């Protein structure tokens, strides 16, 4: 393991009882059908002192009204997941930031797992289990976890967690419309390897179910390859929208 960056081994616990140890930041866009179901399991964490921040990117449905009573803060952002998560990080009060997609569920004991992981590493992520109708989703999940473990690159679906100081050091999420999680991972792994937790978050496989498992796999691998070859995130975002 590479040397610890300065401050990395400091405990996360804050002596101020009113300051949360973790801030969970959830970007949202037109999630009225599912946002209450997504936020309901997090209420027990709120009661225990974890901060829940939902950042809306311009929903045209009833998402904001439904999410507001279930969050400590409901912020309105310019569109774009990276911008939404950066805004949430700016308003977060905790020493550790957790970026959770609206269609992803944390495992039992997540707060303890994240806190322990960040006592030895400055960032990390969970393994993932995709849940849906396609029989290929277990294979897709295993491929995602293996790829992440081999490359030290994490996707947003895997629930990235980061020390606030480290997040600030790398400048947060890059302001780009696609691959913001890949780019952030590249910047973070230049500082230190992630703590890759084998405990799984459960994420919706609705994208694979809707567009077809193999079609989606091929699309995402093609986009990642082109990003690696230097194609701009803006161009790839157009291709992604057109393919969908």
Automatic annotation (TrEMBL):
It is found in: Cell membrane. Gene3D superfamilies: Spore Coat Polysaccharide Biosynthesis Protein SpsA, Chain A (3.90.550.10). CDD domains: GT_2_like_a. It comes from the Bacteria. Keywords: Cell membrane, Glycosyltransferase, Membrane, Transferase. InterPro entries: Glyco_trans_2-like, Nucleotide-diphossugar_trans, Trfase_2_rSAM/seldom_assoc. Residues 23-120 form the Glycosyltransferase 2-like domain. It holds the Pfam family Glycos_transf_2. This is TIGR04283 family arsenosugar biosynthesis glycosyltransferase. It comes from Halomonas qaidamensis.
